[in-house]
Amino acid sequence: MYILAFETSCDDTSVAVMRDDECISLSTRTQLEHDVTGGVVPEVAARSHANAIFPCIDDSLHDAGIELTDIDLIACTDRPGLAPSLLTGLVVAETLALSMNKPILRIDHIESHIFANLLERKESDIIFPAVTLTVSGWHTELYQWNSLFDLEMIGQTHDDAAGECFDKVSKMLGMGFPGWKKIADLATQYGWEYEGIFPLVLLEKESLDFSFSGLKSAVKRYIDIQISTPEWLTEDKKIQIAYEFEEVVTDILFKKLLRAAEQKNAKMILLAGGVSANTKIKNKIQKYADESHIPFLAPTRTIYSMDNAAMVGIRAYYEYRAISEKLWISSL
Fold first, then answer.
1. Both 131 and 239 in a single domain?
2. Are 220 and 261 members of one domain?
3. CA triplet 218, 221, 222: central angle to 5 degrees?
């Protein structure tokens, strides 16, 4: 079975071709226009999706070595995300499905990120019950993954998402978008002692929720103080801010995931979403997992951590398989 999958929830236009649970081609075009504004402008994003989506379709089909008529199923992200961006992908996907008389599945964006852990893996590689930390530009959430289609949110941010906080701090430092990549790159240059200049916000003792607005405000106050001094905000000071900010966010995410795993007696911990591509976060969780002898999984490739159509395709594959099996059993 060939699946044509679309992902246009924010600022990445992505189209993939799946052969069952295998991604055989993936074409993703990242919008660079938003670097100027330091964040995604919905109307600009929608226009960029409209310009990029058909070239992405052509590239994906060409790389897969198939024709559009070979497609058996179409899948597209329909929530959550920026409405104009989502609409672009949905209109194209539904038009193709209607004109070709093919079934279409509307797929949840966050569930897709979690299912990205199944790309280049087997279903049996996931050990239930598991706890998954999903971190992206707009979402920071903890899920208890009880079985393949049983996901329960057990923690979420009260305000800013971690990725959004990265973007805002990056903008404060004049470094642009996307923030997590800019901050991570700058932080690698730090070679001094950690001073702990920003607060570690963990909320109540047993809470699995997140809050990053206080941390963002603390960074803003610290930068304002630096700007008011005669030396101005030096490059070394920017490097320190990036490093210590990344350290605090990493600690918050790590401690919450650890708390959730202990509370829920998880047999596995997983990481998903765009910020999961951050090497520091992955390395810290991997170290804990090794010491605690608990299995840990993250997407096998950096591109699978980012917004991409392959994650939509793998989620659609398992859903369509479940529907087909149910229909077959009911026909007996």
1. yes
2. yes
3. 85
